[in-house]
Sequence to fold (796 residues):
Amino acid sequence: MTASKAFHPPTRILMGPGPSNVEERVLRAMSAQVVGYFDPSLLEAMGEIHRLLNATFETENRATFPVSGTGTSGMEAALINLIEPGEKVLIGYNGFFGDRMHQIVERCGGVPIRIEEEWGKPIRPEQVQEALKKDTGIKIVALVHAETSTGVLQPLEDLREIVDRYGALLLVDAVTSLAAHPVGVDQHGIDVCYAATQKALNAPPGLAPVTFSERAIEKTRNRRRKVQSYYLDIALFEQYWGTNRFYHHTPPVSLYYALLEALRIVEEEGLEARFERHRLNHLALIAGLEAMGLEMLVEPPYRLWTLNTVKVPEGVDEATIRGRLLQEFGIDIGGGLGTLKGRVWRVGLMGMNSTPNNVLLFLTALERILLSEGVPCGPGIAAADEIYRKPFQGGSRV
Amino acid sequence: MTASKAFHPPTRILMGPGPSNVEERVLRAMSAQVVGYFDPSLLEAMGEIHRLLNATFETENRATFPVSGTGTSGMEAALINLIEPGEKVLIGYNGFFGDRMHQIVERCGGVPIRIEEEWGKPIRPEQVQEALKKDTGIKIVALVHAETSTGVLQPLEDLREIVDRYGALLLVDAVTSLAAHPVGVDQHGIDVCYAATQKALNAPPGLAPVTFSERAIEKTRNRRRKVQSYYLDIALFEQYWGTNRFYHHTPPVSLYYALLEALRIVEEEGLEARFERHRLNHLALIAGLEAMGLEMLVEPPYRLWTLNTVKVPEGVDEATIRGRLLQEFGIDIGGGLGTLKGRVWRVGLMGMNSTPNNVLLFLTALERILLSEGVPCGPGIAAADEIYRKPFQGGSRV
Fold:
């Protein structure tokens, strides 16, 4: 047996689909010694996490807390708590994570019904309306607000009204939008919304913030049979997070510390300023990429500010370029998933990674690598810079 | 909206049922910047985690990795992957966590069959043998090696032979024993074993190490229907941890760093020395408590070294004593769960918390508080000290 060496991860600029880099303040907060799960100090911190999560989700829901798992556990918790066997769930299928919802619905005995749309396009409200009209008895409409696989932003306007007409609940995946794009849980009448800590919140992966409306909680309370998962049963989470304080499981205390500090940073910057910063850096990146002669997968109104999908030019091996970005510049970007494998790069600008510095460095690095691989491309910096030279509207420029 | 204050948890000596304190080295390792889930450095670290987990479980299993959730997620993953609807599972019910297994088996459509035993006593092999004989077709026998609610150590000898006679699989909960008591997965022919990071491993909560024998993996491969949970599907974990490297979910990278460092500490100390250290401090604590006139719940051969259940003396309010230990000494111990609520204290000596310093301080603190509450008790220190004065057999004394 060879003795193990201490692990010192390399320094990366995480500009992929997530995780994003974690704020130094968050890393320090996380490294505090742990306390017990009923420690008065922890219960107080949990109260703050609840308040700050609600502010970020833009809701006043009572049932808001982080599930003790990564983003997918949030998706699973949201779906399996709402769905009873045999119930129909309408799912927007325009990317990888819509497909994941489909799989989870099937596994828990629900009946998934798909609205199919091209990967790279959002689901239109008319499609939801048509599907609800055609297939009666749909209990839940599930859409992905920010499709991490395609870079598409799903508009949430008008959905509540449509869904209400058919007595369904609205479930929204905000994994890659929370704390970067307005999610507006109360404004859009979202019944269940979940996210993850490792995207625009800049905390480490391992927690999935979720929020349930009263109507959604009501549905979980009236279940005929228990939720299939004990670990992800929202009623048991509520007993620990609520005033009962019943032991459910030992929560990942260190990740609670991290999430609290990350949420404090969001509060300090202010949501509006944070949204504007994400928008601006996204626009600068796109301007640069387009000036270089590259094309975006998604049409302008539906582009995520956090995740930019760039088409790989004809004849270019996307993995080579990605590998060189990592090797030569320490920049980690993502490749395509599913039907987009080999066809796009996914460039993330999430939370603290959404900065002019990262945009300018990335454009420079990509240009240099493409040229050295013999791929013709123009300079992108000037176009990006032009965006930044416009009157500034808030947020940090570094 | 009031701005949130930075969270600085108080310093605690965690001598309850877990979490235990986390090693400084582990906290520092955890606070390194995160990397992506396919980063070559992370994949290398995962290889080390696999090797060191196998050494700690004492197995050569291929399917060994941490599930991305706390201990209960490990329990759930172990059970739901093995069980198909309608299958019978024999569960040792002699504590809180046997009951939890029962609930999980029920929720996933299995048929739980209980071996009932008094809380505070182990399940006897004859009971397992009888139950398997009486109720044919049992597919899985599930026992808790270290019952955190009662302090009972479940002997694992002879079980494999009995279970084999009936063609069943053996599933063992080692949450509170791994890295403190010998678990011996291969020696005892355990098919599925799971643990948690926040007990004797002294890493933060949030990961559940699991290991599956080839026979267990075979059963999961031959399932007629998919595992009900996508998040906890072991086949999908294997695809990420194995050579395929398929994306399943974004793992809690920081907790991987922490676990690796915690396992390195275990390797440096050596398993045998670590076991002996836990045994010695446990014996000293018991000697002290008994000298004080207190009684243990569990008979000597079945006492856990990691978790000591002390009977609360007649007429004493256990919560008062516990509250004063926390307030006046920063010592966090546990109360009773379920049928033992109000009747016992649970005193943990796990990993780095299993030291003579902690034993001596705890005995002193408890004596002072009991006396000031008017509870008669003798001094315990001398008796504990006598254990330590015997020829030393390895491990650290501080």
In short: Chain A has two domains: 24-267, 271-389. The radius of gyration of chain A is 21 Å.
